[in-house]
Amino acid sequence: PLEMSAKKPVPFLRQVVSVRKKVHRDPRFDDLSGEYKPEIFMKTYSFLDSIKKQEKEMVQKQLKKCRNVEQKEKLQQLLNRMTQQEQAQKKQQKLRERELSLKRQQRELAKQGKKPFFLKKSEKRKLELAEKYAELKRSGKLESFLNKKRKRNAIKDKRRLPSQNL
Q1: Where are the annotated segments for Disordered (predicted)?
Q2: I need a surface site. Which of 38, 42, 58, 161 has the fewest CB within 10 A?
Q3: Residues in CB range of 95: below 8 A, 6 or more apart
């Protein structure tokens, strides 16, 4: 805006210079950025995995060298976060691959002239659970997992019961 003197009275109709407002756009919701396809995204930014791996190794080395308790705690938290992110990414990738394989099977059946069959969310969840149990059985952690689940369910059941205050 134009600066005006405070000593002169302001004219009744003054000239205002219009300034074009900057339009901010969010690439997540904008059509100009194209459609988000996780497979393409993962391929394009696959180089980040190696960088993350290097960073994780560096943090582990720093953790071994570190003597300060507070610093060590921060590094440990950072390392835990990195490993959790890595596990989440692997889980997501597995889920994507499973869905892609199901789609491929459906395409094959469609080519053979059969009617396509799409799994419900509940069916997908059951398959996922069965796969998880198989994985736990292979690694030998099934029994401990089931014990934890039993304890958790017992605690939930206790909470649901009415309190017995006498």
Answers
A1: 141-166
A2: 161
A3: 128
